[in-house]
Specification:
The complex is a heterotrimer of chains A (about 550), B (about 325) and C (about 280). With about 325 residues, chain B is mainly alpha-helical. Chain B has helices at about 5-30, 35-40, 50-60, 65-75, 90-125, 130-145, 145-160, 175-210, 215-220, 225-255, 260-265, 270-280, 280-310. The relative contact order of chain B is 0.14. The chains are: A alpha+beta (about 550), B mainly alpha (about 325), C mainly alpha (about 280).
Chain lengths: ~550, ~325, ~280
C-alpha cells in the first residue's frame, strides 16, 4: 500500500466518523491538517458533514422485474424486484460487493484458503435473525445446501455445484471443499440467490417467512404488487439501514413509474425512459443518475448453424454494426461501447483500449470479410424482444440499415416477450440477449463461454475454443494477480476475434429519484440500485 | 313457478355449462402456449435438470387431463387451489384483487352510467342541434384515443401539472374508504371517457328510434312538452337496448381494464390474469378467467331480465 | 353519385372528404412520403423543421413519412379485419336466423362461450400460440370481433325471416344464397352498418392495446397505434408528437362515423327529421 492510498484510507475513516457524528469539526480539522492537507480540510469537513446519513422516513420505491408469481424462495429469484427485496432488504450473504464494487465481508468476517480449493469461512458473532435467534454455521450450511442436490430447481445450482463437501466446524466456521481450485470463490458467495436463511429443525431452511439477518423485517409481501418492510432495530451493521420503513412497488410501465415520481407518490424509480431521461432530470426536485456496470447486450449466433459456422461472416457482422449510433440513438449516451467482450467496467481484469482496441463500424473490413467468406450477399434473420433489451427491435433496425451496404440483409423479427427465453433464445440461430454481468471474469466465462456451458444450457454460441478451455481452469486457480491478468487478457482477445457473439453495448443502469433521497459519492454498479443495497446505503436528507 | 323464474333458472344452468366450456378452452390454450411455467419462472437460468426438478415438484410431469380433472374436482368442492409458481392459496389473494377490480368498476359505473344517460337523453331532445354535434364529436374523439393515452393525458393535467390526484393508484386493503376512493378517481375517470360514448350513442339512437312511433306522435300532437315526451313516453320503452349496452359496458369495466390497471399500477384481477398467463400459472389463470366469464354472464342475464320486465312480450320468444 | 354527395349534410361531406384523403394517402404513400418507410434520415427526436415537418421519431425516422405509411398499414389491416369479421359473423348470424333449430343453438352457444372470455386475454393467448404475423393478427382479431357481428346480424335477421316475402321465396324453392343476398341482407344493412363504423376504429385501438402488452405489428412497419405507444410519455414533457398519430386515428374514426350516421339516416327513411 503506498503513501497516497494510506492517506485516502485514513481520510475516509475520519470522514465516516464525522458523518456518524462521532467526531467534532475541530478534531477533524486538526487531524486532517496533521496529514498535510490543511488547505483542503474545511471543504472535506463540509463534504462529510453534508453526507451524514440521517435516520428516518419511509422510502417508496418502484422497480421492474416483478410478477405475481414471485416467491420469497431465494432459489427462484430471477429479476430486479426480488433481488432488491431478498438481498437488499431481508437477508445477508457471506460476502458483499461494496459501493466501490469491491468484495468485502458480510456475514463471514473473514475467510482462508491455502490452495483455493478448500475454503474456511469465519462467521461474524452476535448476529441475530429477525426472530431473535442467533446465526450459526448450521444456518449457513443449510442455506447453501438449498441450492444443491438432485431435486433442486435453484438457478444458483451452476454456481454451487462445484462444492463437493460442505461442513460446519463449530458454531462459527463453515468449511467448503471444491472440486477444483477457484481463487474467486468468495465472490460467488455474494450471489443474490445465496442469502442466508434460518435453518428449520429438519435441516431445510425457512424460505417462506422472509426472516433473515438484514436491515429490514418483512411486514407484508404481495407478489407482483408491493412489499412492506420495517427497520430491524437490532441490525448488526452500524451506519447502515437508515430508513424507518420501505415500500417497494412493482411497476411495469415506464410511464407509470415516472408519473408516480413526478406526482410525489414515489421517491425513487428504476429505468426512466432513456429518450426523455434528460428532460426528467431537468424537473425541479428530480434527479436522474446512471451507473455503468457489467450489464451488456449480446447478439449471439449459434456457431453450428450456417452461415454462422464461418467466422468470416461473424467478423463481417462485427464490423457492419455502428455501435456509436446505437449508443446515441438507442441509449441516448447512457451506456458505453462494447468490444465483443463480456467483461465490463466493474470487473478487475478488463482489457484496456490499448490492449484490445475498440472495434468500430468499418464498411471496408466488413466487405473484406464478406469476400473471404465467399458469400456475395447474405439474407439473415435476427429475433428480438423487449425482454432481451429495451428497444432491441429499433436497435436491430439500425443495424440492418448499416449492414445493407456490406451486402448483408438483416430481417428483424420481433418475438413476444412471453416465452422468449425458452422458445427463441438458444433456439433461433441469431437473436438478441443480455447479461446482468458477473463480478468476476471466471464466473462470466465459465457460465456462458466455456465448453461446459454448452452442456449446462447457458452457452449462447456453442463457443468451444481449445486454447480458451486450457486457460480457463489455469486462470481460475492462479493466485498471482499479474499472471491472472495476462491470462484473462488473452482469453478476452480470443472471444473478441473468434466467438460468434456481437457485444455492442454495456448498458448503464438508470435511476430517477426525488432530491430528498441522498447517497454517498460512490455507488455500486454490479446491479442497479447501488448493487440492490440501496435500502441500507441511502437515506433521506 | 313463474315463467320469469323459469327463464332465469334456465339461463343460470346454461351459464354453468358455458363456464365449464370456458375452463376447458383455457386449460387447452394454456397447454398449447409455448414453454411452461418452469421455463417462464427460471427464465434464462432454465436448464434441463432444474426444469425437470421443478416440474416434478409441482406435479407438472403428469398428463394435462389428469391435472384438469383434479382442478375441476377441487373447484366443484369450493377449493380454488394453489398458485403453481409460489404455492400460495389462491383464495388468500384473489379476494383482495377481485374487490379492487369491482371497486374500480363500481366507481367508474357510478360516474359513467348516469352521465351517459343524461347526455344521451339531452342529445335526443336537442337532436341535430349544436349541442348534439359537439357531444357526438367529443365522444367519438374520446373513444378513438387508446386507453393508455387517455390515462397519460389525465395524469398529466390532473396529477403532474396541478397535483390534485395521485399519479398512481397505490391502494391496499387497509386504506380507509375515502382515501381509497380518492386514489381510484383517475383510473375511474379514464374508464368513464372510454365507455360513455358507446352508452350515450345507444341511448340517443334508441330514443330517437321510438320518437317515430304513432303513440309518441300522438303525445306530441296533444302538445306534451318534448322533455316530458322523452322521459315519460319514449324512455320507458327504450330501456331494452339501453340496458343491454349498459350491461356490455359494465362487463367491460370489470373484465377489460387490464391496461388501465397497468398504467395506474392498480392491483386488480386483469393484471393478475395477464401476469399469470405469461407465467403459465394455470390454476390462477383459470380462477381469473372463470370469474370474468361469470361476471359477463350474470350482467347479460341481468340486462335480459330488465328487458323482459320492461317489455313482457319478450317472455314468449318465437 | 355527385348529386348524392351534394345532398349530404355538412358533417357527412366532411367525413367523406377525410376518408378519401386517407385512402389517397394509403394508396400513394410511396409517392407522397418525403422519405422511405424505414429509412433513418436524421438524429433521434429532431424538432419540427423544414426538413422534417413533424420532426423525427426515436431512431431518427421522419415522422411525417411514418404517419403516411402508418395510414397504409393501419387502414389496410383494420379494413381487412373488419371485412373478415363481418363476413364470418354476418353469414353465420344470418344462417342461424334462417335455419334456426339445432344449428342456431350450437352456433349461439359457441359464440356465448367465446364472448365470455375477455377478448384481450383471448387474443393474447392466441397470438402467443400462433405468433404475431400480420395474417394471424388479422384472423384472430376478426374471429373475436365476429362474435359481436354474429349477435347483431342474427337478431336483425330474426325480424326479417318471419316476414311473408322471405317465406314465400323459400316456398318458391329459392336457394339459401339467394335468400340471403336478395331478401335478408338488404333488410339488415342498417344495424350492421352502424356497427361497422365503430368496429373499424376499435381494431386500431385493439392493436394499440396489444402493442402496449408487447404484441402487435412487427417492426419496422409503422402503425398508428404502436406509434402512440412508442411516444406516449413524451406528452409529459410538453411534446405533442404522440398527439399526431392519436389525432390521425381520431380523425378517421370521426369521419367514418359521420358518414355512417348519414347513411343510417338515409336508410331509416329520414325518420327522425319529421320533428
Amino acid at each position: 500500500m503506498d503513501m497516497y492510498d494510506r492517506q485516502q484510507k485514513e481520510l475516509g475513516r475520519l470522514q465516516a466518523k464525522v458523518a456518524k457524528g462521532s467526531m467534532s469539526r475541530r478534531e477533524f480539522l486538526s487531524r486532517v491538517s496533521a496529514m498535510g492537507l490543511g488547505a483542503m480540510a474545511p471543504g472535506l469537513y463540509m463534504q462529510s458533514a453534508m453526507a451524514a446519513p440521517k435516520q428516518g422516513g419511509t422510502l417508496r420505491q418502484a422497480l421492474t422485474g416483478g410478477a405475481s408469481s414471485d416467491s420469497l424462495d431465494p432459489a427462484t429469484f430471477l429479476d430486479s424486484y426480488m433481488i432488491n427485496v431478498g438481498m437488499g432488504q431481508l437477508r445477508n450473504n457471506l460476502t458483499e460487493i461494496d459501493e466501490n464494487n469491491q468484495l468485502v465481508p458480510e456475514l463471514a468476517e473473514s475467510w482462508d484458503s491455502s490452495d483455493a480449493k478448500t475454503w474456511v469461512f469465519n462467521l461474524r458473532q452476535g448476529v441475530e435473525f429477525h426472530n431473535g435467534r442467533s446465526l450459526t454455521s448450521k444456518d449457513v450450511v443449510a442455506s447453501i445446501q438449498h441450492h444443491l442436490g438432485e431435486d433442486t430447481k435453484s438457478a444458483a445450482k451452476g454456481i454451487v455445484s462445484q462444492i463437493t463437501e460442505i461442513t460446519v466446524q463449530g458454531d462459527n466456521q463453515v468449511k467448503m471443499v471444491l472440486e477444483g481450485a477457484n481463487a474467486d470463490f468468495p465472490y460467488l458467495m455474494s450471489d443474490y440467490h445465496l442469502g442466508i436463511c434460518p435453518e428449520n429443525d429438519d435441516g431445510t431452511i425457512d424460505i417462506q417467512s422472509g426472516i433473515g439477518t438484514a436491515g429490514y423485517k418483512l411486514e407484508s409481501f404481495d407478489p407482483g404488487v408491493r412489499t412492506y418492510v420495517v427497520r430491524n432495530p437490532n441490525y448488526w451493521k452500524s451506519g447502515r439501514a437508515h430508513f424507518d420503513a420501505i415500500e417497494t412497488l412493482f411497476v411495469a410501465d415506464t410511464g407509470a413509474r415516472e408519473n408516480g415520481l413526478m406526482s410525489d407518490e414515489l421517491d425513487v424509480i428504476s429505468s426512466p425512459a432513456l429518450a426523455t431521461a434528460s428532460r426528467l432530470g431537468e424537473r425541479p426536485g428530480i434527479e436522474v443518475f446512471y451507473t455503468n456496470g457489467n450489464q451488456h447486450c449480446t447478439l449471439p449466433m449459434l456457431n453450428n448453424v450456417s452461415p454462422f459456422d464461418d467466422n468470416n461472416v461473424v467478423m463481417a457482422l462485427k464490423y457492419a454494426i455502428d455501435r456509436q449510433e446505437w449508443l446515441e440513438k438507442i441509449w441516448f449516451g447512457y451506456a458505453s461501447l462494447g468490444n465483443d467482450i463480456p467483461i465490463g467496467p466493474a470487473n478487475q481484469f478488463r482489457a484496456t483500449n490499448e490492449e484490445i482496441p475498440q472495434r468500430e463500424y468499418d464498411l471496408d473490413k466488413a466487405k473484406y470479410y464478406m469476400k473471404q467468406s465467399g458469400y456475395s450477399s447474405l439474407d439473415l434473420k435476427i429475433s428480438v424482444a423487449d425482454t432481451a433489451f429495451q428497444n432491441s427491435d429499433d436497435a436491430c433496425v439500425l443495424f440492418s440499415e448499416t449492414a445493407r451496404a456490406a451486402g448483408i440483409n438483416i430481417e428483424v423479427v420481433r418475438k413476444p416477450d412471453d416465452g422468449y427465453w425458452s422458445n427463441v433464445w438458444l433456439v433461433d440461430p441469431w437473436c438478441a440477449s443480455y447479461w446482468g454481468g458477473r463480478p468476476t471474469e471466471d464466473w462470466m466465462f465459465s457460465q456462458v463461454y466455456s465448453k461446459n456451458a454448452i452442456d449446462t444450457g447457458w452457452s449462447e454460441t456453442y463457443f468451444n475454443n481449445p486454447r480458451f478451455e486450457e486457460l480457463l481452469p489455469q486462470a481460475r486457480a492462479e493466485l498471482d494477480s499479474a499472471k491472472r491478468r495476462d491470462m484473462y487478457i488473452e482469453m478476452q482477445r480470443i472471444v473478441h476475434d473468434n466467438c460468434s457473439v456481437i457485444i455492442p453495448i454495456f448498458s448503464a443502469y438508470g435511476h430517477a429519484s426525488s432530491d430528498k433521497v441522498k447517497r454517498s459519492a460512490n455507488v455500486a454498479s454490479n446491479w442497479e440500485f447501488d448493487g440492490h443495497k440501496n435500502v441500507e446505503r441511502w437515506w433521506f436528507g | 313457478m313463474s315463467s320469469l323464474t323459469k327463464i332465469i333458472l334456465q339461463r343460470l344452468g346454461l351459464g354453468l355449462l358455458t363456464l365449464f366450456a370456458v375452463s376447458v378452452i383455457i386449460a387447452f390454450a394454456v397447454e398449447l402456449l409455448p414453454g411452461d411455467i418452469t421455463q417462464a419462472i427460471l427464465g434464462q437460468s432454465a436448464n434441463p435438470e432444474t426444469v425437470a426438478a421443478f416440474r416434478a415438484e409441482i406435479g407438472l410431469d403428469r398428463p394435462a387431463h389428469v391435472r384438469y380433472l383434479e382442478w375441476l374436482k377441487g373447484i366443484l368442492t369450493g377449493d380454488m387451489g394453489q398458485s403453481l409458481a409460489n404455492k400460495r392459496d389462491i383464495e388468500d389473494f384473489f379476494g383482495a384483487r377481485l374487490s379492487n377490480t369491482l371497486f374500480l368498476g363500481g366507481v367508474a359505473a357510478v360516474i359513467s352510467v348516469p352521465l351517459a344517460l343524461l347526455l344521451g337523453v339531452l342529445a335526443a331532445l336537442y337532436r341535430d342541434s349544436i349541442y348534439d354535434r359537439v357531444v357526438n364529436l367529443t365522444t367519438l374523439t374520446s373513444i378513438s384515443f387508446p386507453e393508455f393515452f387517455v390515462a397519460y393525458i389525465l395524469i398529466l393535467f390532473l396529477s403532474v401539472n396541478i397535483g390534485i390526484f395521485p399519479g398512481i393508484s397505490n391502494v391496499s386493503k387497509d386504506l380507509a374508504f375515502g382515501e381509497k376512493l380518492f386514489r381510484t378517481i383517475l383510473p375511474a375517470l379514464t374508464l368513464t371517457l372510454v365507455v360513455v360514448a358507446h352508452m350515450l350513442r345507444m341511448t340517443r339512437a334508441a330514443i330517437i328510434n321510438l320518437l317515430a312511433s304513432p303513440y309518441i306522435e300522438m303525445a306530441v300532437l296533444k302538445g306534451t312538452r318534448p322533455m316530458r315526451v322523452i322521459l315519460y313516453h319514449a324512455l320507458p320503452n327504450a330501456w331494452g337496448p339501453i340496458v343491454n349496452v349498459i350491461a356490455l359496458n359494465l362487463a367491460y369495466l370489470v373484465v377489460g381494464v387490464v391496461i388501465v390497471e397497468v398504467v395506474f399500477v392498480y392491483p386488480g384481477v386483469g393484471q393478475l390474469l395477464v401476469d399469470s398467463v405469461s407465467k403459465r400459472d394455470l390454476p390462477v389463470v383459470q380462477v381469473c378467467a372463470i370469474t370474468f366469464a361469470a361476471v359477463y354472464i350474470l350482467l347479460n342475464l341481468l340486462a335480459d331480465i330488465v328487458s323482459i320486465i320492461s317489455n313482457p312480450r319478450l317472455m314468449h320468444p318465437r | 353519385m355527385i348529386k348524392l354527395f351534394l345532398s349530404a349534410p355538412l358533417s357527412a361531406k366532411f367525413g367523406m372528404v377525410i376518408i378519401v384523403a386517407y385512402v389517397v394517402l394509403a394508396l400513394f404513400a410511396p409517392w407522397l412520403a418525403p422519405y422511405k418507410e424505414t429509412a433513418i434520415v436524421g438524429g433521434a427526436y429532431e424538432l419540427w423543421s423544414d426538413k422534417f415537418v413533424f420532426g423525427t421519431d426515436n431512431i431518427g425516422r421522419d415522422m411525417l413519412t411514418r404517419l403516411i405509411y402508418g395510414a397504409r398499414n393501419t387502414i389496410g389491416i383494420a379494413f381487412v379485419t373488419v371485412l373478415l369479421a363481418f363476413l364470418i359473423g354476418g353469414v353465420t348470424g344470418m344462417l342461424a336466423a334462417i335455419l334456426g333449430g339445432r344449428y342456431d343453438m350450437i352456433i349461439g352457444r359457441i359464440v356465448d362461450i367465446l364472448m365470455a372470455i375477455p377478448s384481450l386475454v383471448f387474443a393474447l393467448l392466441l397470438l402467443t400460440i400462433f405468433g404475431t404475423s400480420i395474417p394471424s393478427l388479422i384472423f384472430i382479431i376478426a374471429l373475436l370481433d365476429s362474435t359481436r357481428v354474429f349477435r347483431i346480424a342474427r337478431s336483425a335477421a330474426m325480424n326479417v325471416v318471419v316476414m311473408e316475402f322471405v317465406e314465400a321465396a323459400r316456398l318458391r324453392g329459392e336457394g339459401m344464397a339467394w335468400v340471403i343476398r336478395k331478401e335478408v341482407l338488404p333488410n339488415i344493412t342498417a344495424p350492421l352498418l352502424a356497427e361497422f363504423g365503430l368496429r373499424f376504429c376499435f381494431v386500431f385501438l385493439f392493436i394499440a392495446a396489444l402493442s402496449f402488452l408487447g404484441l402487435g405489428i412487427q417492426p419496422p412497419l409503422a402503425d398508428w397505434g404502436s406509434m402512440v405507444r412508442e411516444s406516449a410519455t413524451l406528452i409529459n414533457y410538453n411534446d405533442i408528437t404522440p398527439l399526431l398519430p392519436a389525432m390521425a386515428i381520431a380523425g378517421l374514426t370521426v369521419a367514418v362515423n359521420f358518414v355512417v350516421d348519414w347513411m343510417l339516416h338515409l336508410s331509416s327513411g329520414l325518420r327522425s327529421d319529421q320533428h
